Amino acid sequence: METLLKNTQKQIGEFVADDFRTAAVFAKHKIDFCCNGNRSIHEACEKKGIDSNLVIEELEAVVNSSSNQSIDYKSWPLDLLVEYIEKKHHRYVEEKIPVLRQFLDKLCRVHGERHPELFKINELFTASAGELTAHMKKEELILFPFIKKMVKASLDHGAVESPQFKTVENPIAMMMEEHDNEGERFRQIAELTDDYNPPSDACNTYKVTYAMLDEFEKDLHLHIHLENNILFPEAIKLEKIFE
Q: What pLDDT shows up at residue 63?
């Protein structure tokens, strides 16, 4: 059986990249594995005041379980991973934004007087929707096409023209900073919604909206994880072969 005890200095993002099932353990303890995945378990647990041995035991149970449900994203070719992120995660965000904005506007009108936190939640989500839309376009028009070009060139043993942004590390640094911003916005939304638990007087729209926000955040965490912990480091490595 695999033991994690000897790997406790391994970064959280690396654990999740190796086996995405471990994300559920980190999420349970409110340990950010996507934007702040570049910390050890001990560092993250110390900051949260959590017993790291307990977290390690839970992680070992997940890693050593026989379930094959985990998708091995790390083994995917980079061009396939790019397509998957665009078609699954970018499309999901584009579809959910207008629905959530409509529901949040309605909640503010109907319940805002009794629940003023709804106005702040709506403001945060509206800002996130605008930033995510622009962010995804930058990836789709600038970063992702260059990653695909590098993959093709490596397969064809060809060369890659130097991009206008000089090195892939430049747009990646910008994308990671933007990921941090969205992660922080959703931390605030989770706090304001009491971790997406609607109040006792909530109507069905209220309950559905909170459930959708919860789902949106989970999708965002996986989306960011795939980029920060798998796609981006591998793209940086791939670029090195053309130097």
A: 79
